[in-house]
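Input record (one chain):
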Amino acid sequence: MIPDPLIILGQKYDFFDVRGFKEISEEVLYFYKLFNSEENFSFFIGTNPHGYYTDAQKEMVSFFCKIAKREIINLEPEIEIEKSENLFASKKRNVILEGSKPHYIILGKLRRDNKKQKKIERRRVKGKYKKMFKNPGKYRCSSL
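The corresponding structure, as predicted from the sequence alone:
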């Protein structure tokens, strides 16, 4: 049972304390060492604030290529900035305005449906108990 490859990416100026990042990285490394698979684990701390910056992206690609035993083709691809109007999920820039339901509506309905199902189940079980107590001879426990 070899642990799957894992890379942890962090940033020096993240709003999460970098000491916690270092601590967890050391703990995970210890775990991977127990399985003699340190090569399947890596961590990286960039010099930026919170986010997924180029330095972390390069480190991730390098790690994946190492694990996949592939050559790194291009660590600095040309980045094409997409027009903002092409990034919207809907023409009105808001999927709710186009008829989608907000997550809280969907979750509320699921909760209500679940409550209804529990009530139905309770009634069914109560009915079985009532039958059982009306005719206790019919429902005997088997002797051991």
